[in-house]
Amino acid sequence: MSDLSSPSPADALDGASTVEVRTSASAALIPTIRAVASDLAARADFDLDAISDLRMAVDEACATLVDVASPTSWLHCTFLVRPERIEVHAEVQTKHAEAVVSTDTFGWRVLQTLADEVSVHHDPGRPDSTPTVGIRLDKRSGDVLR
């Protein structure tokens, strides 16, 4: 007998789907993650400009993290696909506890332009510190004038 008061996992996410990708923290594998982002956005019915923006933002976020990753680190990306947007969270283990994700670079400015929201999470005081770059791109339907 099932409990009708308990939501199913799909109901609990309120129409959202989650996809996780984990690869070695290597620049050579970033195109794989970029392809996943592009495919998810296309399946969520994003317009071509939004798909391109998401693909480039994911590329830049991953490249930024690979630069500070330890040689044996994994690049872990989680995509939360909602009807109106896709949220991407990426993280790596750093080379050093003091390693930081630089937010004063041209690449970071590009990332801020491509994504609707960008944030860095970093705890430099712990040896197991994991800098995290999270990006969110809101879904745009049709041709929206900017």
Structural description of this entry:
This protein is α+β, with helices and mostly antiparallel strands and 146 residues long. It has a single domain (17-140), classed as Histidine kinase-like ATPase, C-terminal domain (Heat Shock Protein 90), CATH 3.30.565. The chain contains four helices and five strands, in the order H-E-H-H-E-E-H-E-E. It has a five-stranded antiparallel β-sheet with strand order 1-2-3-5-4, covered by helices on one side. A hairpin with a 3-residue loop joins strand 2 (74-81) and strand 3 (85-91).
The low-pLDDT segments are 1-12, 141-146
Enter the CATH topology name: Heat Shock Protein 90
Enumerate the strands of the largest sheet in spatial order, edge to edge or round the barrel.
Answer: 1-2-3-5-4
Question: How does the helix and strand content classify structurally?
Answer: alpha+beta
What's the shape? globular
The tally of structural domains comes to 1
Please tell me the CATH architecture by its name: 2-Layer Sandwich
As a percent range, the share of helical residues equals 25-40%
The CATH class label is Alpha Beta
Mean pLDDT over the full residue set: 80
Overall number of strands: 5
> Rg to the nearest angstrom?
17 Å
Write the CATH homologous superfamily: Histidine kinase-like ATPase, C-terminal domain
**Sheet with the most strands?**
5 strands, antiparallel
Measured between the Cα atoms of the first and last residue, the distance is: 53 Å
Quaternary state reads: single chain
What is the chain-wise order of helices and strands?
A: HEHHEEHEE
Residue share in β-strands = 15-25%
